[in-house]
Amino acid sequence: MITWRRGEVLAVRREWRGAIELTVRQLDGGPEFRALAYPELVGRPEVGDTVLLNTTAQTLGLGTGGYALVTAVPDRLPTDPPPGPGHLVKARYTPLQSIVLGVDEQDSPHHAALRDADDLDAMPVVVADLHSALPAICAGVRTVRPTARIAYVMTDGGALPAWFSMTISALRDADWIVGTVTTGQTMGGDLEAVTVHTGLLAARHVLHADIAVVTQGPGNLGTDTRWGFSGVAAGEAVNAAATLGGRAVAALRVSDADPRERHRGISHHSLTAYGRVALASADVVLPDLDEPLASRLAADIAPLRARHRIVTVPTHGLDEVLRTTPLKLSTMGRGLDEDHAHFLATAAAGRHAATLLPPHSP
Q1: Under a CB-based contact definition with an 8 Å cutoff, are residues 193 and 117 in contact?
Q2: pLDDT single digits (tens) 69-79
């Protein structure tokens, strides 16, 4: 199940929040390749170090996760962390399980605020399938409320370490989001939470967000079956937002460039998650796009009309702000110009969410 290798660190390629990208050479005379280390888990590798590597994703040629992962620097282990509060175990019962301080646990300074918290105060919660939607949603918000406080609530359908995401790092550095709450088995956010429900409550009552965005981390998993994809959780996030008195806004996964027919127009992921899994009502944002895609979207969305409010949102001005995002937009290897409709659709959801804010908010 795991391909193990020993390697030597040749160079540090680049760094972002919580992650270091390395060039590593296999010790048995194999090739050089990219590797990724999370200093919070394994310490900080340096040039010349021997590292123990999990090369499974690289061996399989995975796109999003095509790094070898540093699992240990065996000759220079990190020092023991100081004793402190926190008893939440994430990545539970794996070799790299970690103990974190949960925002909702008893030792947290925020426990009192969250112990009986039960309401999001009608906060808009934008839900999306793919991690690549996050910067586009933020861009859409900024066309209406450029100073709105946006929090990212990360679910565990994709990457578990938030540190893997260069998107999170770039958005935080640019002040496009005020923080990340990692929920379930995910870890490494500004706040750690047990569930999406407490993650949303923490976004509202601890980060004081005006808008929350809920998506999985990088690395969407799909199997070309009706139910076997990690984006099913988007429907569950709609239910969580509604249960807590939030205003759920559903971002559609749209494309006229995806080579797979099941993802053309409105992806079957969105139709299944919002049409079958989401039992609560949401504002489903239909972007106002040009023909012939507009007619296809109007037909595709029909199954969602019985349960949800379909809101048509203009897309004028979105292209300009999408070109100002703090990082290059990419979804399934396609950039803004290659899959324009995808990014316009997700940005439209952010634009609509911003219109739901009360007039006195940022």
Answers
A1: no
A2: 999 999 999 99
Q: Is the pLDDT higher at 64 or at 315?
A: 315
Q: b/e string for 90-118 if b means 16 or more Cβ within 10 A?
A: bbeeeebebebbbbbbeebebeeebeebe
Q: For helices 166-173 and 133-142, give the axis angle rounded to 10 degrees.
A: 20
- According to DSSP, the β-strands at 68-72 and 179-182 are unpaired
Nearest to 196 by CA among 253, 234, 165: 234
The token duo for 205 is: 């009552």
What is the pLDDT at residue 362? 62
pLDDT per residue as tens digits for the range 127-159: 999 999 999 999 999 999 999 999 999 999 999
How many Cβ atoms from other residues are within 10 Å of residue 70's Cβ? 25
Q: How far apart are CA 178 and CA 214, in angstroms?
A: 14
Domains of the chain: 4-72 (2.40.50.220), 111-355 (3.40.50)
* Rounded Cα–Cα distance for residues 295 and 69 (Å): 45
Q: What SS3 string covers the chain? A: CCCEEEEEEEEEEEEECCEEEEEEEECCCCCEEEEEECHHHHCCCCCCCEEEEECHHHHHCCCCCCCEEEEECCCCCCCCCCCCCCCEEECCCCCCCEEECECCCCCCCCHHHHHCCCCCCCCEEEECCCCCHHHHHHHHHHCCCCCCCEEEEEECCCCCEHHHCHHHHHHHHCCCCCEEEECCCCECCCEECCCHHHHHHHHHHCCCCCEEEEEECCCCCECCCCCCEHHHHHHHHHHHHHHCCCEEEEECCEECCCCCHHHCEECHHHHHHHHHHCCCCCEEEEEECCCCHHHHHHHHCHHHCCCCEEEEEECCCHHHHHCCCCCCCCECCECCCCCHHHHHHHHHHHHHHHHCCCCCCC
How, if at all, do strands 150-155 and 179-182 pair? parallel
pTM of the entire predicted model: 0.94
Rounded-to-integer distance, Cα 55 and Cα 4, Å: 6
Which pairs with CB-CB distance under 8 Å and at least 24 residues apart come from 81-87? none
